[in-house]
From TrEMBL:
SUPFAM superfamilies: Smr-associated domain-like. It comes from bioreactor metagenome. Residues 96-246 form the DUF2027 domain. It holds the Pfam family DUF2027. This is DUF2027 domain-containing protein. InterPro entries: DUF2027, Smr_assoc-like_sf.
C-alpha cells in the first residue's frame, strides 16, 4: 500500500519521485519529481521503492532486517538460545534455496572497487554455513556461522586484490529446523568456480528478488547440481552409452528370434510328410484351396 512520503517509480514511463498527496476516490497519487512538478498517476502504474542514491541513480540497499551481530560461540555445556519469535514458513520454503550476492561498493568504478558479499537463505531452514576459498590443500574459512530462515546476512567485504582468491570457493551448508520435527535435507558441499572477469562487467550485476540494488548472484544449490554432472568422467559416459547400445541390440535380436520361431513352427508340418510336394498339395486341399488341373493326380 503506497502512502504519502513514499518514494515511487513509474511502471509505464521513465522517472518517479515522492508521493505528496493521494486521491483515494480516483485511486490517483500525486508524485513530485526532482524538478518540483506534481505528476498524477494511477496507483497501479507505480511501485514503491527505497531511497534513490543520487550518485549512482540506483536504489539504496536497505539492510534494516539484517540479523544482529553474531554472538560468541556458546561455551561447552551451554545451550544455544532459540529466538522467541515464531518462524513464518511457506510451502515453497521447503525447497532449499541459497545464494551468494556481491554488491560493488562503487558501481561506477568496477575496475577498482571492493564488493560486499551477502548470503541469502530463501528457505524454511536454519543453515549452518562455512565459506572457504583457496586451492589444492590450502583453504581458508572466510565466513562461518548460522543464518535464520528467509533472511540475508553480510559475510565479508572483498577487495580488488582479493578477487583472485574467490575464483574457487567452497560453500558448505547444513540445513536444520530447531525445536520441531522436519524432513532432513541433503548437506550441501558445493565447489564453485567464479569467473572473476564478471566483476568488471556492468551487465553481470542484475535485478533480483532479494535486494533493491543490482547484484552478481551465485545460486549455490544449482552450482552443486552442476558439480554432480561435471564429476561424471568420460569413461563413465562411454560405459553408459555402450551398455545402452548393448541392451538395444539384445532387444532387437530377441524380436528377430521370435519371428524366426513363428516361421519355423509354420513350416514344420509339411516337413514331417514323406512326400513334401504331395503332402503340401494335400495340405492345401485340406484348407479348401483350388488348384489348376495340371496339379491333379
Amino acid at each position: 500500500m503506497i502512502k504519502k512520503g513514499d518514494t515511487v517509480r513509474f511502471l509505464n514511463a521513465v522517472g518517479g519521485g515522492v508521493v505528496v498527496r493521494i486521491d483515494e476516490a480516483k485511486r490517483l497519487i500525486y508524485v513530485e519529481d526532482e524538478d518540483g512538478f506534481e505528476i498524477p498517476v494511477l496507483e497501479r502504474e507505480c511501485v514503491s521503492v527505497g531511497e534513490i542514491n543520487k550518485e549512482t541513480n540506483f536504489i539504496k540497499k536497505d539492510f534494516s532486517s539484517k540479523l544482529p551481530e553474531p554472538q560468541l560461540p556458546a561455551s561447552q555445556g551451554e545451550v544455544l538460545e532459540v529466538r522467541s519469535q515464531p518462524i513464518i514458513e511457506t510451502p515453497e520454503g521447503e525447497t532449499l534455496k541459497a545464494f551468494l550476492a556481491f554488491f560493488p561498493v562503487d558501481i561506477k568504478q568496477l575496475q577498482t572497487t571492493a564488493y560486499d558479499c551477502y548470503l541469502i537463505n530463501d528457505s524454511n531452514y536454519f543453515l549452518y554455513y562455512n565459506i572457504v576459498n583457496g586451492e589444492n590443500d590450502q583453504w581458508e574459512s572466510v565466513a562461518n556461522g548460522m543464518i535464520e530462515p528467509n533472511t540475508q546476512e553480510e559475510l565479508t567485504s572483498v577487495t580488488k586484490e582479493q578477487l583472485n582468491a574467490w575464483e574457487q570457493i567452497r560453500v558448505q551448508l547444513i540445513p536444520l529446523k530447531i525445536a520441531k520435527n522436519y524432513v532432513p535435507q541433503e548437506v550441501i558441499d558445493a565447489k564453485i568456480k567464479i569467473n572473476v572477469v564478471r566483476f568488471y562487467k556492468l551487465h553481470s550485476f542484475v535485478a533480483n528478488d532479494y535486494f533493491d540494488d543490482l547484484a552478481l548472484m551465485v545460486n549455490i544449490v544449482s552450482e552443486k547440481e552442476n558439480q554432480k554432472l561435471s564429476d561424471i568422467s568420460p569413461d563413465e559416459i562411454k560405459k553408459a552409452i555402450k551398455n545402452q547400445t548393448k541392451d538395444l541390440f539384445e532387444t532387437e535380436n530377441q524380436e528377430k528370434n521370435s519371428v524366426l520361431t513363428i516361421v519355423s513352427l509354420d513350416l514344420d508340418q509339411p516337413r514331417k510328410l514323406k512326400d513334401p510336394v504331395k503332402g503340401g498339395i494335400e495340405a492345401l486341399f485340406e484348407r479348401g484351396c483350388m488348384l489348376p488341373a495340371a496339379f491333379a493326380y
